[in-house]
Amino acid sequence: MANRIKKAAGKTPVSAWLTERIVEHLEQGHLDALFDEFYRDVNPSPESVREADAMFERLTGRRLAEGAA
């Protein structure tokens, strides 16, 4: 695993590279928590969720995973 980390870090010092990955992970966790709070506050109807999923698929050509929201 150490070799894979060194390879992924490239010329960046491993400690700096790992710190960046940890910060990204923490920031993503915070964003996920904010989205969950927003979603609970908005409380969309099942029909609204279906419409949004259809719009997402139409615009991106990708389908969201079940329970992704």
Q: Could you characterize what this model shows?
A:
With 69 residues, the chain is mainly alpha-helical. The protein has one domain (2-60). It has three helices and no strands. The longest helix has 29 residues, at 14-42.
Number of helices: 3
Give the terminus-to-terminus CA distance. Answer: 33 Å
Q: Calculate the mean pLDDT score and round it.
A: 89
The structural class is mainly alpha
Number of domains: 1
Number of strands: 0
Radius of gyration: 18 Å
The main pleated sheet reads as: none
In helices, the fraction of residues equals over 70%
Overall geometric form: elongated
Draw up the topology in text.
Layout: H1 2-9, H2 14-42, H3 46-60
Features:
single chain; 69 residues; mainly alpha; 3 helices; 0% strand; elongated
What is the gist of this entry?
This protein has 69 residues and is mostly helical. Helices cover 75% and strands 0% of the residues. The longest helix has 29 residues.
